Amino acid sequence: MRDSRRPAPCNSRNPPGPHYMSDASSPATATAPDMLELAALLCSRVCHDLISPVGAIVNGLEVLDDDPKPEDREFALDLIRKSAKTASARLQFCRLAFGAAGSSGAQIDLGDAQTMARGHIEDGKCSITWNLPRLLLPKNRVKLLLNMLVVSQHTIPRGGMLTVDPIGEGETMSFRITATGHNARLPQNISELLSGERGPAADAHAIQPYYTRLLAQSCGLTVTLAPEGEAIIVSAS
Hints:
The chain is of the alpha+beta class. Helix 3 (110-121) packs parallel to helix 4 and helix 4 (139-154) runs antiparallel to helix 6 (204-218). The strands form 2 sheets. It has a 5-stranded mixed sheet. Strands 1-3 form a two-stranded antiparallel sheet. The chain folds into 2 domains: 34-99, Helix Hairpins, CATH 1.10.287.130; 105-236, 2-Layer Sandwich (Heat Shock Protein 90), CATH 3.30.565.10. The protein contains 6 helices and 7 strands. Pfam families: HPTransfase. One of its GO terms (molecular function) is transferase activity.
């Protein structure tokens, strides 16, 4: 039976591809979103990442509109500067991690990916050790790496270190990310979303690890999330 919470598809048959699951599939995949819902949830995810710094910019401008004291004016300008920088970094990261970022056969420089990742993730609590060589990789493989970093960041909510290492070399390179920090943990349901053991809930938080799985499938890889001592390992192989 189709999930009553989801709209019926426009056609009686779904087009083939990893974005679609038949109704005869297992309960784990029966709730997979269709193409329109996937796009909507990813847009919600991007908006979620941007609303905080953009809202802070608006607040800073409202303070300036009130003709504040000199010290309040400087505080507002500093808030606007920092928030605009954060919003720009998040936009650039989201464009590469979730957006088209060039043609279907495009390649992306890992050096550019490193810059985007540091701008988005490094915030004083979380830092990145980047052990990847600088080379061009297929677009979806780089998008997969950036989404794996987001998943890894969720395992260290109090901050820590993300260490990015290569698996293999050349255009078939995949990745291993080691997350270390105070109280590193496995986020609820993330492992199942990555492995395909269950479908995503209809919210912007669940769609990101689900999208990571789709990217891995497009590269012929599987993403796993598992503890290793006091660290959490996210790997694609």
